[in-house]
Design goal:
Largest sheet: 11 strands, mixed
Helix content: 40-55%
Shape: globular
CATH architecture of the largest domain: Alpha-Beta Complex
CATH topology of the largest domain: Spore Coat Polysaccharide Biosynthesis Protein SpsA, Chain A
Number of domains: 2
Number of strands: 11
Strand content: 15-25%
CATH class of the largest domain: Alpha Beta
CATH superfamily of the largest domain: Spore Coat Polysaccharide Biosynthesis Protein SpsA, Chain A
Number of helices: 12
Amino acid sequence: MTTRESDVRTGPGPTQTGAEELAAQPSVGVVIATHNRPHLMRRALQAVLDQGYEGSIEVVLVFDRCEQDIAADDSDPRRVVRVLNNSRTPGLAGARNTGILALETDLVAFCDDDDEWLPSKLERQVDRLRQSPDAQFVTTAMVVSYDGHESIRLAGKKLVTLTDLTRSRMAMLHSSSFVFWRKSMLDGFGLVDETIPQSMAEDWDLLLRAAREGDIEHVDEPLVRIEWGATSYFNEAWRAKNEAAEWLLSHHPEMRSDDRAAALQYGKLAFGHATLRQRRIALRHVNQCLRRNWREPRAYLATAVALGLPGAWVQQTLNRRGHGV
């Protein structure tokens, strides 16, 4: 099932995002999509419920292709937990859209089932929305936890533009930090795209579409803890990553027209194909990358992998430092 206008159900939500609306604490709906990780999911859920935010929080746990193993809880009217099955396209994108459409809150937030919100995360983001009444979308920086190592990733800025996101994934703007007005999504930048191969890079695509509507507000504090490595379903999925890079190039003209942005995608493709030992394809993408931007480091990493350097070792080394390929 793909995202269509007829699928969008708009419930009560903010009719404006100005100072009058922000006088009261907006309600927040949190979508946690989960697949066979009950212990991690419970940790993520507890961190959401433990937020210091004074407004109401409704959590929707969306089980994707797995049995429900937790009951709904509405004993606290300010902290409600609902349990659903993914009723849309199997995978992360469909699961997130199932949750979004089930909510009727003012704001929507995402949290991956293997990540954790720090206690002041939501409060700090709503405060930013109060300071910027025209804003539609707000993110935070992150702490990356990988193989016993922790590293902080900051953006170094308070506003993130479409150009910023075209030229870099800006990994510190992780999907587990996303908070946005539900109405802005349904009436503006749209639901999570369910046509992206294996929901890979669906968060980058969503950021790009939101940034076309206006700059992304960013709280440059590490307020989410992100698990990389063994808990990530996408850690070694190079074929899906290659398909996603091709998809992004075909769906975002900003990437094709900007040399740095195009080189980034060609560099990712080169590295992915080199890791899969598809040397000829990898070197073709290296050439495309260097023609657009000779400074793109992924071209040189991909060349080294094509010549025999283990791609997994490169990724692990970068992950320990809180970076990806």
